[in-house]
Amino acid sequence: LMVKESGGGLAHAGGSLRLACVGSGDTLDAYDIGWFRQAPRKEREGVACARSDGTTWYKDSVKGRFTISRDNAKKMGYLQMNSLKPEDTAVYYCNLPNSLRPWGQGTQVTVSS
Asked: Are 22 and 11 in contact (CB under 8 A)?
């Protein structure tokens, strides 16, 4: 199973973007789906996770603004990002936290003030 992210772009502060993560190969059902991001000169950090048991986790700074979801039948994961802030600017990646895959290129999210 491999995953690939897409959907980044440019948004103004307060705007919204939706990221998508598509799985290929095995089914996603048994895996947690995680979204990560890396801002310039910073380490990669976890942003949100949709666990295989249906529960979710969010980084404190995105709680109430970001929503993670998944569609196992379509092998898809999503990250809806609302009320974006300039500090959300980063390259965003999806991966499987309990079974990490090689990191892809990510998708750039840029939020202007």
From this structure: no
